[in-house]
C-alpha cells in the first residue's frame, strides 16, 4: 500500500466546507465527523491522513513537508506567500478584504491614517499602491472595535455577510480583493507523490463542474 496523503485542514470555519468538498471528490470522510478532540485522523482505507491545524500554521506544515498539502484561506496566504505551491482556488470560504470605518471618518481630509488590521501585509500593500503613507496597527481580532474606540481611523478586515460591520456601525470605504480557500502543496510532494496530482485533478473537475457545496 502506498503512503497516505497527509493534508493539513484549517480548523474552524473552513472545516465543514472542506470536508464536503472532499466528499464530492469521492472520499468517504465519515472518519472526520466521528472525531472528538483528535487532531490527526486516518481514513480507514489508509489513503488520507488529516491534520487539523490553526489557519496561520497550515503554510508551516506544508512548507516543512510535514503535510503534503494544505487547505487554507487566501487571506492567510497573502501574509505568508513563500515556500509552497498555491495550486487551486477551491471556491469555498468565499469572502473579501475591505477597508471600513465609522460614518464620521473623512478619508480625504485626513492626516496620516492609522489602520488597524489582523493582516498587516494586505493593509500596507493596499495603501502603498495608493501612494499613501499610513500607520499599521496590528491586532488579533475584534478589529471592528478599533475605529469605534479611536485606536485607529479605519480597518482592513474580512467581510463576509457584512453583519459585523453593520452591527458595529461601520461602513465599507473600499473593497480590496476576493478571499477564498486555496489548496497549497509541498514542493517536493508535488514531484514525488503521484497521489498529489491525482487529488489536484479530481478537485479541479469538481470545482469546474460548479458542484454546489
Ligand atoms: N466571515 C469570515 N471571517 C473570517 N474568516 C473567514 C470568514 N469567512 C471565511 N473565512 C475564512 O475562514 C478562515 C478560517 O477562519 P476562522 O475564523 O475559523 O479561523 P481564524 O482566522 O484562525 O480565527 P480564530 O483565531 O477566531 O480561530 C479564514 O482564514 C478565511 O479564509
Ligand atoms: O461579514 P461577517 O459575516 O460579519 O464576517 C466578518 C467578521 O468575521 C470575522 O471575525 P471572527 O468572527 O473570525 O472574529 P475575530 O474578530 O475574533 O477574528 C472577521 O474578522 C469579521 O469580523
Task: Describe what you observe in this structure.
Belongs to the ATP phosphoribosyltransferase family. Short subfamily. It is found in: Cytoplasm. Pathway: Amino-acid biosynthesis; L-histidine biosynthesis; L-histidine from 5-phospho-alpha-D-ribose 1-diphosphate: step 1/9. Keywords: Amino-acid biosynthesis, ATP-binding, Cytoplasm, Glycosyltransferase, Histidine biosynthesis, Nucleotide-binding, Transferase. This protein is of the alpha/beta class. It has 2 domains: 5-93 and 180-209, 3-Layer(aba) Sandwich (D-Maltodextrin-Binding Protein, domain 2), CATH 3.40.190.10; 95-179, Periplasmic binding protein-like II (D-Maltodextrin-Binding Protein, domain 2). Helices cover 31% and strands 29% of the residues. It contains 9 helices and 11 strands. A 6-stranded mixed β-sheet has the order 2-3-1-4-11-5. A 5-stranded mixed β-sheet has the order 8-7-9-6-10. The protein starts with a strand and ends in a 5-residue tail after the last helix. The chain binds adenosine-5'-triphosphate and 1-O-pyrophosphono-5-O-phosphono-alpha-D-ribofuranose. Residues 141-144, 157-164 line the site of 1-O-pyrophosphono-5-O-phosphono-alpha-D-ribofuranose (PRP). Adenosine-5'-triphosphate binds at residues 10, 12-14, 54-55, 73, 75-76, 93, 95, 158, 160, 179, 181.
